[in-house]
């Protein structure tokens, strides 16, 4: 999938499931549950041990699989070589941007300030992750779009089924969601993850 197609898919789908597992097996189960429930844009975080095994498990999947919690250029290249179709980090890194641009892979860095956002835009980032979004309110997007009307923001961290539409209505191009899947898995296993995913998909833009 080409870079513009990946970006368009993220914008069209609106929901990105951020998957953090205590093991590759757990992350695979969480990912399968999210996909079955209707969320097909997946961010596999590098906090999951041996996460490359999870990438391998979904190499032939129709889902859009990206890498999250990427902290340096070496990890970005590792993710891309293992099939990541987009790369996400908690903060902006020029070095990661260079690697992603080299391979024509979308890079979504975490930004909280106008200065960070401008730096990321200058480095070729098309979608910026507002992280942690729990520190802000949806009105922040409108404020940012005053001086930066072209910026595209994906809030992550503190997003849930009850507030995600507030963010999207405020101008977010997509939202990152995750902790609900881990809680669902802990409480009810695979089927609970599927149900949580369906709830998000069902509540989207109601």
From TrEMBL:
Gene this protein is translated from: eda
Protein's name according to its UniProt entry: Bifunctional 4-hydroxy-2-oxoglutarate aldolase/2-dehydro-3-deoxy-phosphogluconate aldolase
Stored InterPro entries: Aldlse_KDPG_KHG (IPR000887), Aldolase_TIM (IPR013785)
Signal peptide: none
EC number: 4.1.2.14, 4.1.3.16
PANTHER family in alphabetical order: 2-DEHYDRO-3-DEOXY-6-PHOSPHOGALACTONATE ALDOLASE-RELATED, 2-KETO-3-DEOXY-6-PHOSPHOGLUCONATE ALDOLASE
Pathway named in the protein's UniProt entry: Carbohydrate acid metabolism
Lineage, highest ranks first: Bacteria, Bacillati, Bacillota, Bacilli, Bacillales
Top-level taxon in the UniProt lineage: Bacteria
Class in the EC hierarchy, top level: lyase
Keywords tagged on the record: Carbohydrate metabolism, Lyase
Pfam family, one: Aldolase
Any one GO molecular function term: 2-dehydro-3-deoxy-phosphogluconate aldolase activity
